[in-house]
Amino acid sequence: MIHRRTLIQGTAALAAAPLARAQSPKGHLRAGLVAYSYRKPLAAKTMDYETLIRKVSEMGLDGLDTTVYWFPDTSDAYLARLRATAYKNAVSLYSVAVRVRLCQPAPELRRAEVENAKKWVDVAEKVGASHVRVFGGAIPKGVTEAQAISWAAEVLKRAADYSGGKGIFIGVEDDGGLTTTAEPTVEIVKQADNPYAGINLDTGNFPRDGYAQAALCIPYAVSTHVKVHIAAPGGAKEKADWSRIAAMLVKGGYKGYMSLEYENQDDDAGAAIPKFAAELRRVTRSHSV
C-alpha cells in the first residue's frame, strides 16, 4: 500500500519536472558558414559561389554569410541566380560581408562611405539577406578614440537609416583598428542609436579575454561569427568552447546565426571545415528549441 505522504511527494515531483525543463535555457540558434572560410579557392576561381552554396547544403548548415570580395559582379542577373540557387538548396543567404569602413575623418569621406554602404544594402536586399557586415576602420593618426568613435557612429547611423527602411541590419564587426576590443565597438552602436545598427560579433577576433569581451557585445549582436580558437585572458589562443558561447548567446537573448569562420588555410582545410561544421550544427541544435 502506498503511503499518502509518499504519493503526494511523488505527484509534486512529477508536476515540477516540466517546469524544470521549461526553465532550461533554450534559444533559437542556426548554424551558418562564412564564405571567407573558402577564400583560397574562391580567390583562385577554382570554386564559385553556386558551388559553395551547394557545399553548405551538403554539410547540413542552415545558411551562408556571403563575403562579397569574390562576387564576379553585382548585376541583377547574377544576384538573382545566387538567390535561386540558395533557395533550391535550402540555404539562406542571410548576411552580406563588405569592406565598408565606418571611421572616416573628412565629411566627404563619410558621405562616400554611407553611399558605399547603401550600395551593399541594395545587394543584400536582392539576395534576400537581412544583415550587412561592416568594419569600424582604423583610428587616423593624431585623432583620439572618442573622435574616431563619433565619426564611425555617424556613418553607421546614416547607413542604418537607409537599411532600416528595407528591414536590413548593419553590424559592425570587432576586427582590429577602432573595433579591436568590445568597449569602443559597443560605444559606436550606442552613439548610432538606431534599432537597425548593431554588432557583428566575432568571438575569435578579440586579442585577449575573448569570452568576457564577447559578453559585453552580446546585447548588441545582430549576427555572430565563431572561430576554432578564442583568446584566453592572457592573450594565448585556446580551443573555443562553442557550447559555452551558445549558452552565453541564449542567456543574452540572441536569436540567429552562429557562423563558422575557418581561418586556417592549410592543406587539410577541405576536410577540416565539414568536421567543424558538423560540430557547430550539433551545438546550435542542442541549444535551440
Plain-language structure description:
Mean pLDDT is 92; it is low at 1-23. The longest helix is centred in the middle third of the chain and has 21 residues, at 107-127. The chain has an eight-stranded parallel β-barrel with strand order 1-2-3-4-5-6-7-10, surrounded by seven helices. A two-stranded antiparallel ribbon has the order 8-9. It has ten helices and ten strands. The chain has helices spanning 4-23, 39-44, 49-58, 76-88, 107-127, 145-164, 182-192, 210-217, 242-251, 269-286; strands at 29-34, 63-67, 92-101, 131-135, 169-173, 197-202, 221-226, 229-231, 237-239, 256-260.
Total count of helical runs of at least 4 residues: 10
Characterize the largest beta sheet: strand count, sense, and whether it forms a barrel.
8 strands, parallel, barrel
- How many domains? The number is 1
What is the CATH topology?
Answer: TIM Barrel
H/E element sequence: HEHHEHEHEHEHEHEEEHEH
- Specify the CATH class: Alpha Beta
Q: Topology, please?
A:
Blueprint: H1 4-23, E1 29-34, H2 39-44, H3 49-58, E2 63-67, H4 76-88, E3 92-101, H5 107-127, E4 131-135, H6 145-164, E5 169-173, H7 182-192, E6 197-202, H8 210-217, E7 221-226, E8 229-231, E9 237-239, H9 242-251, E10 256-260, H10 269-286
Parallel strand pairs: 1-2, 1-10, 2-3, 3-4, 4-5, 5-6, 6-7, 7-10
Antiparallel strand pairs: 8-9
